[in-house]
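Fold this complex.
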Amino acid sequence: MPDYRKIWLDLGLDLEAHDTLLSVLGKAYQDIFLTQNNRPEGMKYFDFVMSEVHGLRIQELVSAKSQGRKVVGSYCVFVPEELVLAVDGISVGLCAGAEFNFEAAEELLPRTICPLIKSAFGFKLGHVCPYIEVSDLVVGENTCDGKKKAYEILSSLVKDLYVIDLPQTKSEAAKMLLKSEYLRFCSKLEEITGVRITFDRLKNAIDLVNAKRKALKRLCELRKADPAPISGLDALLVNQVFFYDDPVRFTNSVNTLCDELEKRVKNGQGVFEKKTPRIVISGCPMAVPNWKVPFLVESTGAVVVGEESCVGERGARHLTDNRGTTVENLIDNIVDRYFKIDCAIFSPNPSRLEHIKEMVTQYNAQGVIHYALQFCEPYLIESGPFEKELERSSIPVLRLETGYSQEDAGQLKTRIEAFVERLKSR
Amino acid sequence: MKAAGLDVGSRTLKLVILNGNRIIWAAKSLSSFDQLGSVLNLLNGLEYDRITVTGYGRHLVSAHLGCSAISEIKAFAIGSKAIFPECGVVLDIGGQDTKVISLGEKNEIKKFEMNDKCAAGTGRFLEIMANALNYSLDEFAVAASSASKSEKINNMCTVFAESEVISLIAKGAKREEIALSIHEAIASRSVALLKRVELKGEILFAGGVALNRFLCNLIARELKRTVHVPADPQIVGAIGAAIHASGSEIFRVLWHDGKEVEVKAVHG
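Structure:
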């Protein structure tokens, strides 16, 4: 591996802590991903991306910056990548998926706040996330109360924090708010980059991001086969890399992977035996390296065939319409597209439940695991009525609430095993 | 064929050996930090053809013995039906967790619920609270049943509840009243978990905490339903594991002398 120390030092990383983090991450990756049987060849690219996630990709970002491009870091699928690309910026997801430096985070935040927020703070305060350090602009968004209030504190920790306000209902007025916020965000992007958003730029950006999403949709389509041609863990990883990688390279790599999976499906090949119990995971996003629950599920003799999640279908299933003749037409299309996201911050939020049911049918899944991060009220509250409604429709549901630590892995495994036993006994 | 079932619990190990449908051996010992050593001790000198392991330590032990493992939920579901065929719902309160299992017509697991990941309301919780009040576990239940009034314990986290207990002591509450308060808190938590599943058929209360007869009464009273408690509530999971080891469908299990495994009705 090339030496990235100079880059990391220039970014102000704490090298010792960062080394520890990388070695833990590397070991986890080895144990969880590389021990899987019968992986598609096409996953080698994603293995490479992960091995270089704090290396080569950061070098690319640093060199893009030296050519005048801006890096925009964010934590949420409500921050439109199309707009960032339209000003020739680079959009990256920021680290928030591991239990790192929670002690420092808890000095600033309540103990009872979701691990995703705590993790974002832990990474920032511990100087171990090169993405946030390389970002010219960090974009927050008013989704849940936890994030909304935490950004007030984060603003003093990063050089430029910009917060997008978000509606909480799906009314016409709410949509107008989203539009005005996206327009305000356009101005901010134009101001920091000096690039004016033109029709051609925006249309190209829409096409670029749509191509990424279409590649993911193709992957989803292939996962409907039994036996599953790819593990849920590997598919989750592809969804996670979506937020870090160069968009064109990502799209090509997913399509190459899908070419291979198409052959597998045609030949009836899979990663697990035919008739392996199939599970849809629904709920909170799983950011790198949060692989705990899918790993437990797939080491218990079931396969995850779909993710109803921001890192999954909720985040990527809708395309942005690229038709129109003016910048405003395209902005309206972007607003339409993002307004459809059925995040649990919206009240009411019926399309999410419908989508889960659709996924169960389409992927021929036998059950749903509802995954909620500890203290994540919007998803925890939705999980109750969703469980009732799905069980009423004869769809077995297991509700899990967990954080980023490994301490409850034993208890989770017992529940998951019993749930898989329940699916098998039906 | 002799089929053994081993339940490697967080606090207690339970072993049952079946010959056909008869229990020819049932034994228990305390779990220790050397789980494998304790298991080998318990199995020492015994003969069986096949064994299935369940419980919290199942993976460690099954890897060592090279045998199959099933979850506690499945083991209790099978074991409960085997000793009490009328059973539709199982409440199992063990050393470190509480489970509610509802069973379908074909004995399948229809739904299950488990407590949060901490020890709240479990056997370990009872032990710690008894200890905080300087009672043995038996004295603890007796004292609770003698109290005439109780205080509300709000916090079911073992650590926080202990500090609530300490503040109750500081307020001058009587020891037996605090004991009753703790029992009531566990009962209402168990009932809340029970109400999350469909309560169809009879309710069987198993696991080590069902040894506490006063708690059985409280739960039945709060549910306003009859709750059935096996004479030895701890071995139900091991019986289920033994049936799994036998490879048969669920069958009625009897003691070696042909007597039924006794299940007492506690009326609400």
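The CA atoms of residues 211 and 232 of chain B lie 8 Å apart.
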